Amino acid sequence: MFAGENGLQGDPRLKAISDAIRVVPHFPKPGIMFQDITTLLLDHKTFKDTVDIFIDRYRDMAISVVAGVEARGFIFGPSIALAIGAKFVPLRKPKKLPGEVISEEYVLEYGNDCLEIHIGAIKHGERAIIIDDLVATGGTLSAAITLLERVGAEVVECACVIGLPEFKGRLGLNGKPLYILVEPRQQTT
């Protein structure tokens, strides 16, 4: 579900968020129009508005875990977790977490990857959201859902700043809802 279709129609914050994202053509490979959120992070007000929209959505949903997908989910997740009184759990690339972990492999648009989580980071039955900057094919979020469910979490929803138009109207991933703030911009700035 896109934020603009769910109570935020005409919200000027969504246009500012979209406008703050730089498009970098042919990165990391030819044909990819990379949605660069680093320019959004340089705009204090727009960055805060982005986080605030997520906080407003999740504040009263009894969320106890905000799981952030490496690396850009780490930018938004901790602030959301602090504001709603939840813990932040990083979902990392292989060999980045010390101690005991479990892993989930997945296929990307341009290769394979893997996510890991610490064993014991989540208690059985905890309500979780998963946050990342962008959903493209859904492979990363699907792997994150599977990983969290393997450790006993109840995944309530996935949330992304940017979602490809193909996701518009879809129910979600692995049967889980997907909340997206804006669609990707096509032109460069």
UniProtKB/TrEMBL annotation:
Catalysis: reaction(s): AMP + diphosphate = 5-phospho-alpha-D-ribose 1-diphosphate + adenine
Gene3D superfamilies in UniProt: 3.40.50.2020
GO molecular function (one): adenine phosphoribosyltransferase activity
EC number: 2.4.2.7
Alphabetical UniProt keywords: Cytoplasm, Glycosyltransferase, Purine salvage, Transferase
CDD domains reported for this sequence: PRTases_typeI
One GO biological process term: purine ribonucleoside salvage
InterPro entries: Ade_phspho_trans, Adenine_PRTase, PRTase-like, PRTase_dom
Transmembrane segments: none
Pfam families assigned to the protein according to its UniProt record, in alphabetical order: Pribosyltran
GO CC aspect terms: cytosol
Subcellular location: Cytoplasm
Domain of life assignment: Eukaryota
Pathway where it operates: Purine metabolism; AMP biosynthesis via salvage pathway; AMP from adenine: step 1/1
Domain Phosphoribosyltransferase stretches: 55-163
Matches recorded under HAMAP family: Aden_phosphoribosyltr
Quaternary structure and interacting proteins, as annotated: Homodimer.
Protein family (similarity comment): Belongs to the purine/pyrimidine phosphoribosyltransferase family.
Name of the protein this chain belongs to: adenine phosphoribosyltransferase
Biological source species: Jatropha curcas (Barbados nut)
